[in-house]
UniProtKB/TrEMBL annotation:
Alphabetical list of Pfam families matching this protein: Hydrolase
GO BP terms: DNA repair
Gene Ontology CC annotation, any one: cytosol
Gene Ontology terms for molecular function: phosphoglycolate phosphatase activity
Organism domain of life: Bacteria
UniProt keyword annotations, A-Z: Hydrolase, Magnesium
Protein name as it appears in the record: HAD hydrolase-like protein
Bilayer-spanning residue ranges: none
InterPro entries: HAD-like_hydrolase_sf (IPR050155), HAD-like_sf (IPR036412), HAD_sf (IPR023214), PGP-like_dom2 (IPR023198)
Keyword Magnesium attached: yes
Length: 219
């Protein structure tokens, strides 16, 4: 088929929900121990903004804290995420490995484009052996603008992609596809929002559906 598929990570391939609350609570417990937070962990607020780059996450969750305190919290949060991944507390969504194997067998190229940090992505790719199926994983850290559309554009330029799709659960993924002339496939998973998915070219409820809709990717 010769298609290129660019996948989001959190909420698309990786069930971030399984380690998100644990890791976020660890981060805010640390702030409480330092007398820098006296409320509940704002997990619902994080769910609302899930998918934005981490610097923006901490600006939203810790608006009254210094940049240094946000950076320290970010670093600790990352440590806890990676630790929880390494001890198997996370999980991939159903059919990720099966679908990736199918895509590879049908001459498709697989890429990951994520707002997650490089070390975090490495932990997931390594633990679940996705590097055996994925051409390359790209982190938003490499893009000064922290814009998902720019990240996808960098993948297109590097690999000379002319047709394919971006597969993701949030509006940033859908816009990244449209801004770069690719098909947008919205994933109706844990963090998805109906108003955002309505803007996708195709919406799926399970990654296994990709095996039956690849022909729609031809422009």
């Amino acid at each position: 088929m010769g298609q290129s598929l660019i996948f989001d990570m959190d909420g698309t391939l990786f069930q971030t929900d399984k380690i998100l609350e644990l890791s976020l609570d660890d981060a805010f417990s640390r702030l409480r121990s330092l007398n820098k937070w006296d409320k509940e962990t704002p997990i619902d607020k994080y769910r609302e903004i899930m998918g934005v780059p981490l610097p923006r996450v901490w600006e939203t969750l810790l608006p009254n804290h210094s940049v240094e305190e946000r950076e320290q919290t970010d670093a600790y949060f990352l440590e806890r995420l990676i630790e929880n991944i390494s001890i198997g507390k996370g999980d991939l969504y159903p059919n990720v490995k099966e679908v990736f194997s199918y895509l590879k067998e049908n001459d498709c190229s697989i890429y990951i484009a994520s707002n997650g940090l490089t070390e975090y992505l490495k932990a997931i790719v390594s633990y679940y052996h996705l590097d055996e199926l994925v051409t390359e994983t790209f982190s938003i850290q490499k893009i000064k603008s922290l814009n998902k559309s720019d990240l996808v554009q960098s993948i297109i330029k590097k690999y000379g992609i002319t047709n394919g799709a971006v597969v993701g659960d949030r509006l940033s993924d859908i816009n990244a596809a449209k801004d770069n002339g690719l098909v947008s496939i919205g994933c109706n998973f844990d963090f998805a929002r109906e108003d955002e998915l309505s803007q996708a070219d195709i919406v799926i409820d399970d990654l296994a559906e990709l095996q039956t809709i690849l022909f729609k990717l031809h422009k």
